[in-house]
From TrEMBL:
Superkingdom to which the source organism belongs: Bacteria
Native source species: Ruminiclostridium cellulolyticum (strain ATCC 35319 / DSM 5812 / JCM 6584 / H10) (Clostridium cellulolyticum)
CDD domains from the UniProt entry: Dockerin_I
Protein name: cellulase
Molecular function as annotated in GO: carbohydrate binding; cellulase activity
EC number: 3.2.1.4
Length: 412
């Protein structure tokens, strides 16, 4: 008798299954009159790791048919891109499903510099390597092709990131899905570890997400040093996981250093230090702004520190402590109008710089919508680089140039 009851229960369950799967559900697996639960691959009413496993099995099935509940970017296909989105959802990187393919201001066929928000250093292929497996690190701005990257649309809002020097792709070594999986360059093999999504977090900053792992590109240990390793890690909200993208700029600041024909030992030493400082400063301006200016630079022992004038002259005094990148960048700002032009004086009111573009750029940098630029008859702050103490990382040089570039738009 017990056997017959068990048999009846099994038969009844099978009958319900047949009824549920015949005609009552629509072609995409949803019940008429109810909403699709996107990502609920096993239709149990929740989205969890079982759905990710089911999605993986779905992708392995050569006879699979389209299921709109698994089309997480609404492009009328359910494929590996959607699988990556589901993984990101379970990791908390994506917070809603479905999503449209991410929209960014990224342009293909254009070379970019990818700058870490925390350190101000650039995504760089170590030693300008062109080899498979060349290590990807961070390094201060050099202007080299190994610090330039272009993007190839890989579909579904993902991109391949191509190093200009080597022509190879940014990838995660051995397709690792683990925290700390190292970033290297490799030959294009179509693997998801070579595809990257960009999450726009505002202010020109992005989180860069690996399609294969769902983890973010970061500088390990929040390093601010040259050579800091770049790898992947679970999103933790750190600024070392945020990147500023700079497309090609048209900056064209040049300078002539006036030298004595027969310099003394002191002058020769000063010329070498001034040249190093100016070369570095000009490189920042030309790689991060669209400003053009011809400068004339002097070594003048009657100058106490250094000064810059809108007529295009910069003078360095005898103190070697001012023959550095910070001072040179600061003085270039004077030559292009800061504390010098009529536009500057008309825009500084009651100690506040009132230009819209530069104020917006400051707020992009800080993420604080109420921040303002302070100014006086000579200087601005923050990021004016008025004192050596204002330079904590290379990011301060970057942010100074961003703001000065916007000063010009405001009419300084």
């Amino acid at each position: 008798m017990i056997m017959k009851i068990k048999g009846f229960i099994v038969a009844f369950t099978l009958l319900l299954t047949v009824i549920f799967n015949s005609g009552i559900s629509s072609a995409d697996g949803t019940v008429p009159g109810t909403s699709i639960i996107y990502g609920d691959c096993n239709s149990d009413g929740s989205i969890n790791a079982l759905d990710l496993a089911g999605f993986k099995q779905y992708l392995m099935d050569s006879e699979r048919t389209y299921n709109s509940g698994m089309d997480l970017n609404l492009d009328n296909t359910a494929d590996s891109v959607d699988y990556a989105i589901l993984k990101q959802y379970l990791l908390g990187i994506v917070t809603t499903l479905p999503i449209n393919a991410p929209t960014t201001n990224i342009k293909t066929g254009v070379n970019y510099k990818i700058i870490n928000r925390n350190s101000g250093k650039l995504l760089d292929v170590s030693g300008s390597s062109v080899s498979e497996g060349g290590n990807v690190i961070q390094w201060g701005l050099t202007g080299g092709a190994n610090q330039q990257w272009s993007f190839i649309d890989a579909g579904g809002g993902y991109y391949k990131i191509v190093n200009r020097n080597s022509g190879k792709l940014l990838e995660i070594m051995n397709s690792s899905v683990d925290n700390g999986g190292g970033a290297v360059q490799g030959i294009d093999d179509g693997d998801n570890s070579q595809k990257w999504g960009f999450i726009d977090i505002g202010g020109g900053y992005y989180k860069i997400v690996n399609m294969g792992s769902g983890k973010l590109l970061e500088v390990l240990n929040t390093s601010t040093a040259n050579g800091g390793d770049v790898a992947q890690w679970t999103d933790n909200g750190g600024s070392n996981q945020q990147w500023y993208l700079v497309a090609q700029t048209t900056g064209n600041i040049t300078y002539t250093l006036i030298r004595e024909q027969n310099p003394t030992a002191d002058q020769s030493d000063a010329y070498a230090k001034i040249k190093a400082a100016m070369d570095s400063a000009v490189m920042y301006y030309n790689n991060l702004t669209n400003i053009s200016k011809q400068l004339t630079v002097y070594y003048n022992t009657s100058v106490s520190t250094a000064d810059g004038n809108i007529n295009g002259t910069i003078r360095f005094g005898p103190s070697r402590s001012y023959m550095d990148t910070r001072t040179a960048i600061h003085e270039i700002a004077h030559t292009v109008g800061v504390g010098q032009s009529s536009g500057w004086f008309s825009l500084v009111k009651n100690g506040i710089f009132t230009g819209k573009s530069a104020t917006e750029e400051l707020r992009n940098i800080t993420g604080v919508s109420t921040d303002v630029l302070h100014g006086d008859s000579q200087h601005f702050w923050p990021y004016g680089l008025n004192y050596s103490s204002e330079v904590r990382t290379d990011a301060d040089y970057i942010n100074h140039c961003r703001i000065v570039n916007q000063f010009k738009k405001d009419g300084v």
